[in-house]
């Protein structure tokens, strides 16, 4: 039987063998034995084995790390902060999302959590030492930096961020971060004074410029007694959601380069400094449309009446009170390619708004004289200049829905109407679901497309898809 001297093999084959054996936790000799065994058994996958000079010589171009079951793979670096215990919870949250986790603990991190806990939760070996002969015989820190989809640092201590900003590589964590060719997400955690220190501010700015993702820190109580401020690490569930966002494959962006203007929510029409006329609109539908348009690549401005909703990420949100404020801000936001008026604008306001709080008097109730508010949809639809090429209105009706919506599309001069029944029994006002009918012009005719009951997010996605198709056709 011939003997094989690994040393004498071609360099490309040697490099491949080293990578493969390290990945499988075997010696190179054992790996060769396994490969020969597989060959003899005629295993088909061997024919696709990556023995190519480019993959062997350029580990920076390592193959994607999705494993056989399609799972993603992250390297989690745990820094030496009091929030390290939350990173154990983070491992669980990531695994719930079918993300494989390999943990690296810094020396300081091991003062707060043990490698054993991280290993038990991740079901993987934990790495702590740059000069570990067991993993460094084939430059294991390079593998930890590159054989993953994302590197997370949680908690990202002030010290770790300083090292990153200055390119240090004197321990396993910093060497991985310097050798990385994958996205990096930091979850900073530290005392508010450390966070606000000029040195940390400079480092954070540098890291942001270097394209590093960051989540948090949040404001709240510190571990130190009687201290509060910005510095708490984001919760594990928030970090896991940010990870999922980064790992999500890029979505098509059919509205890239388009400006979309959206209104949402009710308006408040003052009676006096403490009272107002309002309606039950929650703003959820308009906010969902703004988020969907932003996800489709549009540059979105959302003018919203008073609502209790968070700003959708990446959207310019302008908060207003009254119909007149709303019209003013809408006009100022033009030009736009698409305008969607989903706000429930009050039709009337009080003619003589009290400068002081109205008092009960023996003279009886004060008469409330109403005057008509500006009609935002009609005003923008009838603009001579700056009319957006596609203007979409909403018709919220409690009776004769389609007939009223057809009349509205003609009266207002808009292009489409999204009609919905807002009778109390439907639960649309303030609820999470909506049943809508999309009215569009088809020559002289008006086309009515009735959609099934959907969540407001689904309605938003459908509407944005329809808009994208129309924009594509007309360009
Ligand atoms: C009890 C205790 C809690 C600490 N908490 C934090 C913290 O939350 N954030 C931080 O940046 N440093 C914290 N430090 C200081 C770090 O442990 C120290 O800067 C260490 O060198 C950071 O190591 P690393 O670079 O491996 O993360 C703490 C230290 C102690 C003793």
Describe this protein's structure.
- This protein has helices at 11-24, 28-40, 53-57, 84-96, 115-122, 133-136, 140-146, 158-166, 172-179, 192-196, 198-209, 236-247, 284-295, 323-333, 376-381, 401-412, 456-474; strands at residues 72-78, 99-105, 150-156, 184-188, 213-214, 218-221, 228-232, 259-264, 269-270, 276-277, 299-304, 316-319, 338-341, 348-350, 370-372, 390-397, 416-421, 433-434, 436-442, 445-450, 454-455.
- It is built from 17 helices and 21 strands.
- Residues 43-68 have low confidence and may be disordered.
- The protein has an eight-stranded mixed β-sheet with strand order 12-11-8-13-16-17-19-20, with helices on both faces.
- Helix 4 crosses helix 12 (236-247), helix 7 (140-146) crosses helix 9 (172-179) and helix 13 crosses helix 17 (456-474).
- It is α/β, with parallel strands linked by helices.
- It folds into two domains: 72-247, Flavin prenyltransferase-like (Rossmann fold), CATH 3.40.50.1950; 259-349 and 368-474, CoaB-like (Rossmann fold, 3-Layer(aba) Sandwich).
- The structure holds flavin mononucleotide.
- Residues 79-83, 106, 108-109, 155, 157-160, 189-190, 194 line the site of flavin mononucleotide.
- Its cofactor is FMN; Mg(2+).
- Residues 2-38 form the Antitoxin FitA-like ribbon-helix-helix domain.
- GO terms for molecular function: FMN binding; metal ion binding; phosphopantothenate--cysteine ligase activity; phosphopantothenoylcysteine decarboxylase activity.
Q: Key terms for this structure?
A:
elongated; binds flavin mononucleotide; eight-stranded mixed sheet; 17 helices; Rossmann fold; alpha/beta
